[in-house]
Fold these 3 entries.
Entry 1:
Amino acid sequence: MIKTTYEEELNRNGRFTYTNVGVSMLPLLRQGRDMFTVEKKSGRCRKYDVVLFKRPPASYVLHRVVKVRENDYVILGDNCLNKEYGIKDEDILGVMTAFVRNGKEYRINHKGYRIYSAVWYFLYPLRRLWMKFRILCRKILRKNR
């Protein structure tokens, strides 16, 4: 079996579908259970787009655009504490256009998905506090063992 990179697949077919790996996009994408489709990027990304980008030297990340700036983007995984700054257009390989959960496909232009994206990011300050609190509790519990 010949292994291809995401870039090669996007250049060859313009899109690919893959099973989610990792927990950074929970609760939207569940590791090993949900699939997502990425299409080759054309033009600038929009706020709340979920993009596949390459982090040097060779790691691929699927996260959400939370701010579009003149020369770059601010990106955040749905299940992450910290935003990533300075992601440029040339770093972004493609944009998620759909995902499959429990055998049903959801398109990202669906109104319900767009509402989810906006609400999920709106709750980011509360989610961040909750995650920090959980981390602190784990540290305290480990220390007291």
Entry 2:
Amino acid sequence: MNAVLEPGMLVRHPDCPDWGVGQVQSNIGGRITVNFEHQGKVVIDGSRVDLRAVFDPQPQANRLHPPSARGHSDRVGGPFGCATAVQTLDRA
């Protein structure tokens, strides 16, 4: 599934539903950069995580909470122990 992901597509991380919907920024060599609404930009190892395409981004109960004010994650895997993210992007 990850091979067909292109920039602009909407996805969810199957192990981190609290991250919300993410928009694919790039997909190069199996490294998929996604900007999640509640987690920020995360680089995903596509060989370890099968992202789920979102075709109907209607709000769900866990998406009704306002986005976190902390911006991008400073931790690998995010605050909820999702260890499948490869890294967060370095800030310029």
Entry 3:
Amino acid sequence: MRKNADVICQHTKDGRTIPLKIRIEDEDGELQSYSIRSYRQLSVGGTLLLPNEVNVGKAIWRYECKVCIWGRERIIELFYHLHENVWYVELK
């Protein structure tokens, strides 16, 4: 399930982007905030093949993040679309 997200991130002096916190709407339309416990950057630039086999080229950065949702640790995929300046998540 894909959802748009608000993201707080840190930008390092060497140009890396580190996601720290996300905010997404729940099923009731309420905004929920989650701290990112750990992350792994899966791609920056280059060719990117999404799980649904769509090739998106260099325009999307992809992260795998661990967050705690209602007491359970979950893995989410966080994407940043460079040209549209938009973050979104894919819940696994």
